[in-house]
Amino acid sequence: MSNTIQAVGVKAAVLNKAVAMLSALKVDFIIKTEDGEYIKMGNLEIQEPKTRATKRKSEVPYGTYKNYIESFGFAAMQVGDVLVVPKGTFDAETVRGSLSSRACKLWGNGSTTTAIVGDTIEILRVN
After folding, report:
1. CA–CA separation, 102 vs 122, rounded Å?
2. Which tens digit of pLDDT belongs to each residue from 7-26?
3. Are 84 and 121 in contact (CB under 8 A)?
4. How do strand 112-117 and strand 29-32 relate by DSSP bridges?
5. Measured in whole angstroms, how far is the alpha carbon of residue 25 from the centre of its chain?
6. Given 3-state DSSP classes, what are the helix, strand and coil percentages for the chain, each rounded to the nearest 5?
7. What's the pTM?
8. Span 14-40, mean pLDDT?
């Protein structure tokens, strides 16, 4: 990492002038040039960019779990009702999560309690 660019042309001249001005101000800086070279002044460190976790691709079409749980009369539940939903061809934990998510959207956070019992998921509406 040097503080001057050896390339020729107007871009190199402007960049060299900017580096000279920043150096005169005694500020820390890092500049990445078009060709990927770094010009560094001071104690700054170059950090690798953080990668974001990508959303995994769903194995079933959008709305499949919602439609499945709604087919058992989920939306008609009243306070104190217990609904027993078979896991069917789905993973029990995924169905339980869909039930909890849907309940939160319909009735608010903490409105239900769920449990996986064998091949079924039980949901109790508490408020």
Report:
1. 14
2. 568 988 899 999 999 999 99
3. yes
4. unpaired
5. 40
6. 30, 20, 50
7. 0.56
8. 90
* Rounded CA separation 45/82 (Å): 58
What are 116's two structure tokens? 């996986």
- Cα angle 14, 18, 24; round to 5: 145
User: 58 pLDDT band (50/70/90 cuts)?
Assistant: confident
What's the rounded mean pLDDT across residues 41-69? 86
| 96 band by pLDDT with thresholds 50, 70 and 90 | very high
Count of C-beta atoms within a 10 Å radius of residue 66 = 15
Determine whether 63 is exposed, middle or buried from the number of CB atoms within 10 Å of its CB (0-12, 13-18, 19+): exposed
CB 122 within 8 A of CB 82: yes
